[in-house]
Amino acid sequence: MKRTTVDTLTARQTALAESLSRESLDAWQLDRLNATLRHVTASPFYRRHLTGIAPLNSLADLSRLPFLTTGDLRSEGLNLQCLSQSEIARIITLNTSGSTGAAKRIAFTSGELKATREFFREGMENLLRPEERVLVLLPADRPDSTGDLLRSCLPEKGHPTFIHWPPGTPQQCAAVVEAHGANCVIGLPQHLLSLAETLGKRHPVCTVLLNSDYAPPALRQRIEACGITTFLHYGATETGLGGGVECDHHHGCHLREADILVEIIDPQTGVPLAEGETGEIVLTTLRRRAMPLIRYLTGDSGALTRQPCACGGITTRLLDIHRHQGCDTPQGFLSSRQLDDLFFALPGLFDYRAALAPEGLHLEYLASEEISPSHFTPPSGIPLASAKRVPGWTQKHTFKRILRDLR
Ligand SMILES: [Zn+2]
């Protein structure tokens, strides 16, 4: 088993090269946290938000600090910035579909984008063997987007890298894979699933990177059944696009701990949870200078393990990652995760969108011919109001698969 490359990268970025251990990394992170607390006094928002905060004596002291919410990011905007405009290389405005008010905007320096690029380049070495070729099924037209960074950094490790976006039909995608002889494909789980099941018996793909906040186990099993090994990547704009990636052991995403510190809290009480317990993922950045985030409530759920991994790595791993998104119903909470687990277990179903209306669940789906509306039975006795096959997604569909509430 190959040791995670995230450890090698973390050792280099923290300058703890020969002595990377849990203890030395904890001490380095505490030092960086206190440096970040000093740095954010340059931001009008943080000056107000963190009034009276003394230097932290331990990582556990972090729990004394207030949370940063999505609402703060939206309403405070540039007040969170800690550098002058001339030092900002890029501001990413986040997709605000389904929400009202100001957009979330996150600023980065060129050094911060470089750190993400480095994480992508080194993190991908968990999946790739020498000279393997990579196809990226993500948009890459915006400079420093995930697709653009991957395209520019992977050739430095000797991996020819190609972009294909939008994915089009699974047949078109499979033809592009064959034409490029791609051994590894990076994309959204549902695109990778439809691709895997469309490729012929003899194909060049060995590994895929699932780039998502949640990859249903049933979906992963279907890709693996095609003879392809799946690796999960956890990341969001707030983590600096990259966040963590699985190793050969596939038991949690090794976090890029030179850049982010993750806590898990009880979403009801805000109290930090013990290792192994599932709760809300809270993010603190450690080296970001443009717009550091301190105890940011991500809305994602997961659990942490700080035990050494079977691969030999000591970086913290994030497990059981999912998003607590869905609708309250008289029958209980209906989550998009439940629907994912249920529907991706249907052989031939590639992707779907769901909306809950007073009359029941409305579905649109992409599937092979053998799937018909009679295959869909929503959970908890919720009636199926409609199930319509679509040939592809239009602009009105959200990029992310969420359960929309139309009631
Ligand atoms: Zn590992």
State the helix count. Answer: 10
Uncertain residue segments: none
| First-residue to last-residue Cα separation | 50 Å
Rg, please?
Answer: 21 Å
Task: List the main descriptive attributes of the protein structure presented here.
single chain, 407 residues, alpha/beta, Rossmann fold, GMP Synthetase, Chain A, domain 3, 2 domains, 11-stranded mixed sheet, 4-stranded mixed sheet, 25% helix, binds zinc ion
Describe the structure.
With 407 residues, this protein is α/β, with parallel strands linked by helices. The chain has two domains: 1-324, 3-Layer(aba) Sandwich (Rossmann fold); 326-405, GMP Synthetase, Chain A, domain 3. It is 25% helix and 25% strand. It contains ten helices and 19 strands. The protein has an eleven-stranded mixed β-sheet with strand order 4-3-5-6-7-8-9-13-12-11-10, with helices on both faces. A four-stranded mixed β-sheet has the order 18-17-16-19. It has a two-stranded antiparallel sheet with strand order 1-2. Helix 5 (110-123) crosses helix 6, helix 7 crosses helix 8 (189-198) and helix 8 packs parallel to helix 9. The longest helix is centred in the N-terminal third of the chain and has 18 residues, at 22-39. The protein is globular and about 60 Å long. The chain starts with a helix and ends with a strand. The model has no long low-confidence stretch (mean pLDDT 93). Bound molecules: zinc ion. Residues 4, 247, 249, 254, 309, 311, 313 line the site of zinc ion.
